[in-house]
Amino acid sequence: MTEAAAHGAHPPGFAHQFEDMQQQREAGNLGMWVFLVTEILFFGGMFTAYIVYRLLHYESFVTGSHLLEVKFGATNTYVLICSSLTMALAIRSAQTGKRKGQIIFWLILTMIFGALFLGLKFTFEWRHDYIEHIVPGFGFQYRPEWGSLGPGVQMFMCFYFFMTGMHAVHMIVGLGILTVLVIMTARNKFSPGYYAPLEISGLYWHFVDIVWIFLFALLYLIGGRY
Amino acid sequence: MSTATAGAHDGPPESGVNYLNASYGIKSWLLTTDHKRIGLLYLVSVTFMFLVGGLAAVVMRLHLVEPQGALLEPETYNKFFTMHGIIMVFFFTIPAVPATLGNFLIPIMIGARDVAFPKLNLLSWYVFIVGAIITLGAILSGGVDTGWTFYPPYSSLYSQSHVAAVAIGVFITGFSSILTGLNFIVTIHKMRAPGMTWFRMPLFIWASYATSLIAVLGTPVVAITIVLLGLERLLHVGIFDPAVGGDPLLFQHMFWFYSHPAVYIMILPPMGVVSELITAFSRKRVFGYSFVAMSSLAIAVISFVVWGHHMFVTGQSIYAGLVFSVLSFMVAIPSAIKIFNWTATLYKGSISYEAPMLYAMGFIGLFTMGGLTGLFLAALATDVHLNGTYFIVAHFHYVMVGGAVIAYLGGIHFWWPKITGRLYPERWARLAALLVFVGFNLTFFPQFLMGYMGMPRRYAVYPAEFQVLNVLSSAGASVLGVGYFIPLIYLIWSLRYGKPAGPNPWGAKGLEWTIASPPPTENFLTPPVVEEAYNYSGTGGSHD
Amino acid sequence: MGLIQSGFNCMGVAWATIPFQPPAASSIAEGIDKLYLFLTGITLFFTVLVFSIVFYFMVKYRRREEHERPAETRTYLALELTWTIVPSLICVVIFVWSASLYVQNSRPPAASMEMFVIGKQWMWHIQHPEGPREINALHVPVGVPVKLTMTSQDVIHDFYIPAFRVKKDALPGRYTSLWFQATQTGTFHFFCAQYCGTSHSEMIGWVYVMSPSDYAAWLAAGEKTDSMAQQGARLFDHLGCGSCHVAEGNGRGPSLAGVYGKPEKLQSGETRVVDEGLIRQAIMVPNSVQLPNYAPIMPTYQGQVNEEQVLQLVAYVKSLGSQERKNGK
Predict the structure, then answer these.
(1) Domains present along chain A, CATH in parentheses
(2) Distance between CA C129 and CA C146 in Å, rounded?
(3) Residues B181 and B208: beta-carbon distance below 8 Å
(4) How far apart are CA B151 and CA C195, in angstroms?
């Protein structure tokens, strides 16, 4: 939004190709929604492959699912839901014209939750998996109790790491976006009349949370554990 | 196309400032956010890729003159056809019309100053270039021999070539396609000028819109599929490898879920171009406008449920085969509707025969042929015989070259005066159009016969009984090559020596013809207001 | 035309040498050729129709003066519907025709002679149940339905006999099948029609269609080998399968006598008919087809037996079934 400087007469954040702020805001929102649709298809491809293999190798996938620790997954789910709340509160603060300190507070809290999620994931869960030799490609070992189901279990773990890894990449991108938002807020870019970047980034953040909920259910919960 | 009341005569004289001379220097091009300049960046890039892919085709056709292969070792031949496929599909035909003509025309045609996200638009080009460089780098450092379809387990476990690098290149380029599609969808939804209602939009816009939908919905799936393939190849974990429970057919399902719709990414925009050419050169609004517009959307939707017809001989269940066969026939109907409507548009028109119109006529005939030979492949019983043979090769080249490339050439000629402000030499252009048409048919018609005779595709050496047809095909390819080469020369020549075009050399309707050639940076000096579309018979508007 | 003609003469090629049709040597070839001919007719008809209309209009309605203004295009719904419905109907006809042919052609007759095909980079292994093996050659008797059960040892291949109009992928890790009935004696090409790597184009061979007596003579003339089932029986003993799969049914594994072709209820609750594919799966990933009432103790034989040996084991298990049924009667 560097055009803002060049178009002194326009409202802050206004880009030259639009007629007015209304059009710009609608375009930005629609753009993000279309982007999220592509993301759905992106994760949808993985989910489809996962479900196909789950049907093919049901026994193996149940065995694999039991290798995961529900307590880690559940804690992370809780952390992410909290981060969604704080993200929504950040947008709300900007919308209602609160002090910039308050917006930054909520944004930073969101980042802390996001970082906590990744921290738990990498330092506890994945490290634990590595020690247990269940990371495919990195010292994966078949266990005797799996019998001939071993390759299927490995495939489950492949999908587990691939899907949660892709999700983690999205989280890291989200943290980057939040950092930019904090800087923009600190420089007084937002006002009740213009907070589109916050709103659009919020959509993205919530989407990434929702993907996690699906991942949690598909990878940790289903499979006759309870 | 459409008539603007305001802004109809606001084009400055030829000496005025336009998007080409508004700023100079390499930086002003590489950092531009002007959709017109980005369109030209794409034009140069895809033309380069077309030359590389075309070179591969020339080598292949020369090689196949002799049954034992005239030039190459089988291994090298395999790399050449793979390179030809990957470059022509992912780096030429998919971006050709949308990224060059689409970028240049979409904002102008709907009366906008630019696309909705100009910086994203530039980013798309850079993403494309990065993908292209990685792919070309991998090809130069030894190449890849999997075919453009990357079927595992050959690609994931057995191939000794640079599969992962090329997969990364294609993956990255996919994002260029997604971002461009996203940009166009938002632009068409939100940036239309006052009065530019959905059913006043030029048909090229409808086609681009349908294409963007496919790009946005399909590309992510092939992206994830390619990542899975790369993961299996790099980490040796089983995903598609049957030895550890993987299913190589799952790859094919996921690959064709994108790659069949991708065929329509390649052909819908050219169809949009042809709609514009036919209206302009017969001075008539397209017959059955709403049917032509809606058939684009119908194709976009149905194209997502026909992928299984690529897999009739893989041992998929009979019932799946029946369903995919029915759906594949369904996708033929909207294309038929377009053909008939274009033909009917000519009725009682005022038809002139400039080169773009010759290309459009060629398109109608060749696409009819290409589409109808698709029925052989949608029909289960004949597909079993023809699948994997040269019949397939001939069929999709009739659609992709006889259709897409010819319409692209027609579009480039039609809008060349608008893009550059110069006219191309008409006689040379007609000669080239004729050569392309004749050369194309000579090259690819024999391949239908070859396929029916049973010659499998991707063969570096072949039994002697197929030689006659192969020689014919190679002979045709040389004519086609000359036909491609002539425009390359005279179009470049015209940049300097062509006659100044004026705002509207064809007497065509549409917002792009109401502004100067080349257009000013912001397209419209005063925002246009649209009152009617494709008014060729009425009194409104004038042409020079 | 004259130019093209003289072009051909220059190349020393007469029209007559341009091939238009492959030999039609199987029972289904004629039906497919008829459909092909019909489709060619449709294609030519519409291509010529569209081309001639376009040319006619282009001449008749050519621009006569620069400022001509044609009449406004009107919409004719009836016309639109006509050219939507007529092609749809043609498509329905083609679909019904082709689908019924396809369904008919997919089912091998019950009395088919069986043969086995293994594709590997870059050759075709053919195994006759009686024992003889061939590489890149397939001897079959004329007039007898032959069913090929196929698999691949490495990548995806595709077995294609143009003269018979049949083609099917040979996939690693599973069985596919195709069948044909040759109608004339002679030799015909078969090809690999799925790109499989460097020497893909050399993965070709000949089908030798012989009279039944010649075929019997060919079988007898070859090196004396055991039948596939006998080889399978030896392998069965060698691998010690019999220590669990006791024929009387009181072993740690189920008896295999008579299981072929029978439905079995698996531990997962699914019921599957025991066919070649299931037997293969039971050898490679036994836990995935676990039967209730048995402990999941069978190890995998993945990597210990090759595809040829798996086929021999399958043939052996099938032979147990047929003995059972013979004894039963």
Answers:
(1) 19-221 (1.20.120.80)
(2) 12
(3) no
(4) 9
Residues 1-60, chain A, touching B (beta carbon < 8 A): 15-19, 23, 26-27, 30-31, 34-35, 37-39, 41-46, 48-49, 52-53, 56-57, 60
With respect to residue B543, please indicate whether it lies within any of the assigned structural domains. no
Lowest mean pLDDT among B298-307, C5-14, C193-202: C5-14
- Mean pLDDT across the stretch C200-211? 95
CB contact under 8 A, C287 and A58: no
The residue ranges of every structural domain in chain C are 18-61+74-106, 113-221, 228-328
Cβ–Cβ < 8 Å for B519, B108? yes
Q: How far, in Å, CA of B70 to CA of B60, rounded?
A: 9
User: Residue B19 domain-assigned?
Assistant: yes
Judged by CB atoms closer than 8 Å, whether chains meet at A34 and B250 is answered as no
Predicted confidence (pLDDT) per residue in B111-123, tens digit = 999 999 999 999 9
User: Which residues of C fall below an 8 Å CB-CB distance to A?
Assistant: 268, 284-288, 290, 296-300, 302
Q: ipTM score here?
A: 0.91
Domain CATH number, residue B20: 1.20.210.10
Q: Kindly identify which residue of chain A lies nearest to residue B242, measuring between CA atoms.
A: A151
Decide if C150 contacts C159 (C-beta within 8 A).
Answer: yes
B27 class by beta-carbon count within 10 Å (0-12 exposed, 13-18 middle, 19+ buried):
exposed
Could you tell me how many CB contacts below 8 A there are between chain A and chain C? 30
**pLDDT tens for each residue of B161-199:** 999 999 999 999 999 999 999 999 999 999 999 999 999
Number of domains in chain B: 1
Determine the residue of chain C that is closest to A56 in CA distance: C288
Q: How far apart are the first and last CA of chain C?
A: 72
Taking the CA of residue A106 and the nearest CA in chain B, the distance in Å comes to: 28
Task: Answer whether C198 sits within 8 Å of B78, measured CB to CB.
Answer: yes
Looking at this protein, which amino acid is placed at residue B162? Answer: H
Q: What is the pLDDT of residue A193?
A: 84
In chain A, what residues touch B122 (CB-CB under 8 Å)? none
Class of domain C113-221 (CATH, top level): mainly beta
CATH of the domain spanning C228-328: 1.10.760.10
Transcribe C271-305 into DSSP letters: EEE--HHHHHHHHH-GGGGPPTTS-S-PPP-BTTB
CATH 1.10.287 fits C18-61+74-106, yes or no: yes
Greatest Cα-to-Cα distance within chain B, rounded to the nearest angstrom: 72
How confident is the model over B223-239, as a mean pLDDT? 88
Distance between CA B377 and CA B386 in Å, rounded? 7
Residue B198 structural domain: 2-533
Q: How far is CA B17 from CA B106, B279, B517, B520, C55, in A?
A: 21, 30, 10, 6, 43
How far apart are the C-alpha atoms of B303 and B270, rounded to whole Å? 16
